[in-house]
Specification:
Elements (H helix, E strand, L loop, with lengths): L1 H6 L20 H4 L8 E4 L2 E4 L1 H12 L10 H14 L2 H15 L5 H19 L12 H11 L12 H10 L18
Antiparallel strand pairs: 1-2
Helix pairs in contact: 4-7, 5-6, 6-8
This protein binds glutathione.
The site of glutathione has 11 residues, from loops.
């Protein structure tokens, strides 16, 4: 979400939320929001939870060129396909393995790591032959999947066996306005 806000050059305020163990909120004000889940976007009257909904909303509302969410049926369909993947094996594998290892969340680490490798293999099936997930340029599909792949090692999963994914992670640092996060470096990769 911060990546798209930055690529679109949109000003935003980041509100820190107190967390107990990675994914269980303890911040009362935040819990009072609909669903009380991270991420939540407040844009005037609009309150949205869920990263997929937020990415689609920001792209439709603030990207007049429609680069980040292409409107032609084929590219639009491909973007939706990878957004779906971000909520499936990427979430139940890469995301879950990381929160178990890094934040001590309860769960089956081995099963999550196996699913994480499946997620990387699915990404590799596209990225071994194409630069970006859904079309000729980066879209919200890449933004939805990228952070989890870039942080795979924090869940005990190596990206080395997936050269297309490695190349894609490296390419992602090049577009103007790229912003990093802990574990994902700022600026272009040498
Ligand atoms: N599928 C959601 C997952 C969001 C999610 O799991 N958020 C966690 C933070 S790591 C959370 O807020 N968990 C507390 C809760 O759902 O009440 C998305 O992509 O937005």
């Amino acid at each position: 979400m911060r990546l798209l806000l930055s690529f679109l050059d949109l000003p935003y305020e980041r509100v820190p939320v107190a967390m107990r163990d990675g994914c269980n909120q303890v911040d009362e004000a935040y819990l009072a929001l609909p669903r009380g889940q991270i991420p939540t976007l407040l844009d005037g009257e609009v309150v949205l939870w869920g990263s997929t909904a937020i990415l689609c909303y920001l792209a439709m509302r603030h990207d007049p060129d429609r680069c980040w969410l292409p409107q032609d049926p084929q590219h639009f369909g491909r973007v939706m396909q990878w957004l779906e993947q971000a909520q499936n094996e990427i979430a139940t594998g890469l995301f879950r393995a990381r929160v178990i290892m890094k934040f001590g969340l309860a769960g089956d680490l081995q099963a999550a790591q196996e699913t994480a490798r499946l997620a990387l293999a699915v990404l590799e099936s596209r990225l071994s032959a194409q630069q970006w997930l859904a079309g000729p340029g980066p879209t919200i599909a890449d933004i939805a999947c990228f952070p989890y792949a870039a942080l795979a090692a924090e869940g005990g999963v190596e990206v080395g066996p997936y050269p297309g994914v490695m190349r894609w992670i490296s390419d992602f640092h090049a577009p103007e306005h790229f912003v990093g996060m802990p574990g994902i470096g700022e600026g272009p990769v040498a």
